[in-house]
Amino acid sequence: MISYGKHHIDEDDIQAVVDVLRSGMLTQGLAVEAFEQAIAKYTGATYAVAVSSGTAALHLAALAAGVGPGKALVTTPITFVASANAALYVGGRVIFADIDPDTINMSLESLKQTLAKNPDVRALMPVHFAGLPCGMLAIKSIADKAGVVVIEDAAHALGATYPNGQRVGSCAYSLMTIFSFHPVKAIAAGEGGMITTNDEATYRKLLRLRSHGINKSDDPFQLPEQAETNGVRNPWYYEMQELGFHYRITDIQCGLALSQFKKLDRFIARRRALVKKYDEAFAGIRNCRPAQAMGRDQSGHHLYVLRIDFDSIGLNRGQLMQELRSRDIGSQVHYIPVPAQPHYRMLGFNPEEYPNAQSYYQEGLSIPLFYDLTDEQQNDVISAFKELVG
Ligand SMILES: Cc1ncc(COP(=O)(O)O)c(C=O)c1O
Fold it and tell me: With a 6 A CB cut-off, is 155 part of the ligand 1 pocket?
């Protein structure tokens, strides 16, 4: 079975994990810091904070951005539920701005209208869907005018670049950027996430929030009289200065992630080549087209999504997925619009209010895209589409 996405593990990765297991430190050792430094250097951000998942990264980012009771976060309906949930975790409100049908990223027009109607917005969370960077220059200018902060959800976009060549994660247009290292993503840690930022106060807050709210780095003590005896620092003393979480990542995970990171450029190059071949092939197949036909040299290429005219092919989406499955080809839908989820409907959301997201949802299907997909397997996928769709 060819799945829609899959990690690549080789002997180097296995050895890297074994090395950590032999190092004497399973968590809070050198691999976490080394991985943070590698991602900071690669993206060009000043600081990076590794956490236990992309979802944990989103939660901490929402908190550090000041989303909370009475404050809203704007994101896109076409994302994984975790992006929107981050606002709910911190007691804030979520607002969805509809997508641009050409990029499947948040529409700038819709974003502007949303901001004009909602004075309680504290943060924007654009999602670089499938790895295609959003128009961050414009988003930053909209955010600056509205006095709100930007958190980039780059769970799909490690290795992607903005049009000026800067890497996603540099935070050139945002306060924070988050990544995920779940196995289907660009590099795998098993589970894992990262937040990058250029703001020192935000960095220090994230360090505390990741570990129970306990003071980190050289954060000053709030109760210095408890911290010292006769002017000498009490060696056992620490302070919980705010309510944080246990969102630390282990050295075992970071050992794997660091080893994977060394292969990132190779991973992206292969994904890009596969995408270009799909693009060429689908240009000649009726009734379907790539959902994002631009930015092929900028995208992180997390997913290859087709838009399929199901009315014309005589199969509905479930039937097509079944036909593909019977040929050992996996496919998936990314995503059911978040406002259509029962929990969000219960909160009063109505998916019909996002017509571009709805029409994309009717047609979208992600097909196999991952480093180990062979030319032969890709040809099989293309042939299946010629037969079933074209
Ligand atoms: C857009 C987006 N944001 C956030 C996440 C959450 O990442 P994680 O699975 O590492 O918690 C995902 C995961 O699939 C995602 O696709």
Answer: yes
Tokens of 146: 């509205």
183 in the same domain as 38: yes
Nearest-CA residue for ligand 1 atom 16 is 80
Ligand 1 atom closest to 129 (CA):
1
pLDDT, tens digit (0-9, with 9 covering 90-100), for 177-193: 999 999 999 999 999 99
Count of domains forming the chain: 2
- The CATH number assigned to the domain holding 356 equals 3.90.1150.10
Burial class (CB in 10 A: 0-12, 13-18, 19+), 256: buried
Place 217 in a pLDDT band, splitting at 50, 70 and 90.
Answer: confident
Average pLDDT of the segment spanning 164-187: 98
> Looking at residue 216, what is its pLDDT?
82
Tell me how far apart the alpha carbons of residues 3 and 299 are, in angstroms, rounded to a whole number: 21
Q: Is residue 1 part of a domain?
A: no
Does the pLDDT of residue 218 top 90, yes or no?
A: no
Give me the pLDDT at residue 297, please. Answer: 97
Average pLDDT score over the chain: 97
Q: Are residues 226 and 331 in the same domain?
A: no
pLDDT given at position 166: 98
User: Separation of 153 CA from ligand 1 center, angstroms?
Assistant: 8
CA-based angle 25:26:28, to the nearest 5? 75
What is the 3-class SS of 218-280, one letter each residue?
CCCCCCHHHHEECCEECCCCCCECCCCCECCCEHHHHHHHHHHHCCHHHHHHHHHHHHHHHHH
Measuring from atom 7 of ligand 1, which residue has the nearest CA? 54
Boundaries of domain holding 364 = 264-388
With a 6 Å cutoff on the Cβ, whether 179 touches ligand 1 is no
- Does 132 lie in the same domain as 225? yes
**Residue 180 alpha carbon to ligand 1 centre in Å:** 6
Instruction: Verify that 228 and 311 share a domain, yes or no.
Output: no
185 ligand 1 Cβ < 6 A: no
* 247 shares its domain with 300: no
Residue 6 lies in a domain: no
Average of pLDDT values for 20-46? 96
Residue 3 lies in a domain: no
Q: Do 59 and 156 sit in the same domain of this protein?
A: yes
